[in-house]
Amino acid sequence: QVIINHLKSLLNESDAWVKERAKNALKYLSQIAANRSEILNDQELKRTEQDLNQPIEGLQEQKQSILEKQETDLLLLSSIIEDRNDNKLCKRIISSGIVESLLTIFTTRDLNSITQTYSSAFFQLTHPSSGEVRLLIYDKKPFPGLTRLLEHTDILVASDAIASILNIQLSGINTTPESDPHPHYETIQESDGIKKIFALFQKNGSKYSRDRSALCIGFLFRAREISDQVMRQEIINHLKSLLNDSDALQEERAKVALKYLSMNTVNKTEMEAEGFTIPK
Q: What would the pLDDT profile of 169-207 be if each residue is shown by its tens digit?
């Protein structure tokens, strides 16, 4: 308990080296379930939720203090859940209200004040995690906030957002028959999400964000025509290119996305141009 509390306090350090080492130490300790429960106990989660809901008000120094407190809370959260498939813990975090608090920040706060600490913490909740956890996050209506982050000038924040959208989307694929349109299409469209996803794709800020943008659109238009000809051509061509990607997971996802798109005759005609064979 004493060691854990001291490591938590080091996350407030101005020295980036010390802060990073403390984060890593907490991550190592969290390999044991009992330590995870101690580090992110209910009191800690409640405090984090309250900190995230605190308005950024007052003098500049006070505002900075609030932001630093929020970032410290999220660094702690990330250090524990990063690369860890702990459904029980994720459910506790979701129940605490932290997801809603982050989404409120994504939706309402000035984009320039949202650092990757915020977007990364949200992403960690979507990966690795079960379909059940992702559906619980979907129930919190995440797309307005996440699609807004796609317009962030920091490509790392935008990348976290598109990856989070993709992960949540993947949970929706299995909730309806494969021949049906994607169940998240309408909810993403409500916030002009497809246009924003395609804009991120065209921005080409990184291969990571471009690949995931293409996959998102490929999945969203399952059995549905991509009526925008430019979008249809560019997305299909990019998905085709991913069939030779060095990342086996992205290659497999591209194969599935192309199969979904081919369920529509217009998409299929575009796809089969130049003799392309649709993957089985």
A: 998 887 888 888 999 999 999 999 999 999 999 998 899
| DSSP annotation string for 44-66 | HHHHHHHHHHS---SSHHHHHHH
DSSP output for 72-99: HHHHHHHHHHTT---HHHHHHHHHTTHH
| C-alpha distances out from residue 119 to 1, 28, 125, 145, Å | 29, 22, 10, 10
Q: In the chain, where are the structural domains located? A: 40-272
> Any alpha helices (H) in 140-247, and if so which ranges?
143-149, 155-173, 185-189, 193-203, 207-220, 229-241
Q: Measure the CA–CA gap between 139 and 142, rounded to whole angstroms.
A: 8
69 φ, ψ (degrees, to nearest 5): -65, -40
The Cα–Cα gap between 198 and 215 comes to: 11
The single residue listed with the structure tokens 């996803």 is 197
At 111, list the tokens. Answer: 């984009």
CA distance 279 to 108: 42
Q: Give me the CATH code for the 40-272 domain, please.
A: 1.25.10.10
Q: Mean pLDDT throughout 103-107? A: 98
